[in-house]
Structures are given as structure tokens and as C-alpha cells.
Amino acid sequence: MKFFVDTANLKEINEARSLGILDGVTTNPSLISKESLSSQKEIQDHYMSICSLLRNEEDVSAEVISTNYRDMIKEGEKLSFIHPRIVVKIPMTQDGIKAIKYLSNKKIKTNCTLVFSTGQAILAAKVGSNYVSPFIGRVDDVSYDGLDLIREIKNIYNNYHFRTKILGASIRHSLHIIECSKIGIYAVTSPMKVIYSLLNHPLTNIGLEKFLTDYKNKMN
Ligand code: G3P
After folding, report:
1. Which of 6, 9, 33, 173 to mutate to test the pocket of ligand 1 (most atoms within 8 A of CB)?
2. What burial class does residue 126 get, using C-beta atoms within 10 Å of its C-beta: 0-12 exposed, 13-18 middle, 19+ buried?
């Protein structure tokens, strides 16, 4: 399973790189707003800096802030011109679906975001979105099971051999990542703190301490 980091922060992207787990980056307008960028030019340059940290097949999702079809496709094309690694992230709305269809016909990569139901995921696949981003944590927040949504989308996509890649988003804890890997989706996009939490196990700490104590006791 691919590991994307859900951040617009260059330091965090570098951390993911140095940990050796980076497969891609996703951003959204809230994450961009945390980076104290004050103009369109600065935002474009920032996407450029993210792209320069990526390698091989890795890509970065950059989200449009327009909400109507005409502006979405204009903004999407502009984002795609910044760098070939840019994937245009488009919200799941009627205008958004039309924009994904338009951009995918023009061979511009897309990621359909704010997906909370199987019906929405079917539409994203029908119009040829490269990625679909179901928001697991936010589904859990409203007392449904975000992982069930992932299972259902995976089944439906298998039934019809849809090529849209499932990118599990809104990852809140390590179990989300583990369960997504059991279901077998293409990727998760996660904050670094959740990726770090995969490292932790109390028996690892206890075991390491014992190994080192035994070794020191013998050698002294
Ligand atoms: O990029 C979208 C998504 O991952 C948001 O996550 O934690 O704000 O629900 P969260």
C-alpha cells in the first residue's frame, strides 16, 4: 500500500522522505492556509517546492477553490501547468463531476475529494477520476463506519474493474491505516503523526531495554 502524506508542510514532507515511506502528497485548502502563504504566486511557488521534493511516480494533489464548472476547469488547468506531478483535486459536486470529466478527457490527472458515500465513489470512477478520496475519519465522526465505506467502494470498483485508485483520506489513527491495508486499497494519505504512531509498541520498548541491559551487564 502506498503512503501519501496529508500535509502542505515542506518539513513534514522531508521527514516522510527521510523515514523512507513517502509515495506522494495530498493537500487541501485548510492545509495550504496553515503555511502562511499570502498570494497566488506564493501558493504556486509552494506547490512547485513540494513537487521538487518528489521523485519517480510520486505526485501531489492540489485542490481547486472554485465551485462552479467553468472556474474549476480554468483553475484545474492552471494548477496542472505548475508541474507534471500535480494532480488536480476536485470536490464531489455536480460541477466537480463535470470538471473531472473535462480534465480527464484532456489527460489532466484528478483526485475526487470530499467523498462520503459509495454512490459518490461510483460517479467519480464513471467520469474517470484517477483517484477517489473517501474521508474515513469524518465518516466515523458522524457515527458511521468509515472503513465499511472503504470496503464497499473496493468491492464495487472490483466488480467493474474501475481504474480509479482508492486513496483513503481523513486518517486519524494507526488502525485506519492497518485496516485499509487489509482491505487492499491503493493508498492512504495520512498526517505524519499517525505514521509515527505505527512505530509504537510497548513490548518493543521493553524488549530493547532488556537486550541492552543484558548486554551491558555481561560486558561490564
Ligand atoms: O485531505 C483531506 C483529508 O485527509 C482531511 O482529513 O483529518 O481534516 O478529516 P481531516
Report:
1. 6
2. middle
Give the ligand 1 atom nearest the CA of 137: 9
**Number of helices and strands (H, E) in the chain?**
11, 8
Q: How high is the pLDDT of residue 156?
A: 98
Q: How far apart are CA 33 and CA 110, in angstroms?
A: 21
Tell me, what amino acid is at 147?
L
N-term to C-term CA, the chain:
45
**Active-site hit among 2, 89, 165, 182:** 89
Quote the pLDDT of residue 91: 98
The predicted-structure confidence for 26-75, as pLDDT tens digits, reads as follows 999 999 999 999 999 999 999 999 999 999 899 999 999 999 999 999 99
Cα 63 to chain centroid, rounded: 12
Residue 34 annotated as catalytic: no
Residues with CB under 6 A from ligand 1: 6, 26, 28, 135, 137-138, 169-170, 189
Q: Which are the contacts of 201, defined by CB distance < 8 A and separation ≥ 6?
A: none
Quick check: 25 and 46 in contact, CB under 8 A?
no
pLDDT above 70 as % of the chain: 100
**Nearest ligand 1 atom, CA 189:** 4
Phi, psi angle pair for 128, to nearest 5°: 85, 25
Question: How many Å apart are CA 193 and CA 98, to the nearest integer?
Answer: 35
Please choose, from the candidates 152, 155, 160, 158, the residue with its C-alpha nearest in 3D space to the C-alpha of residue 136. 152
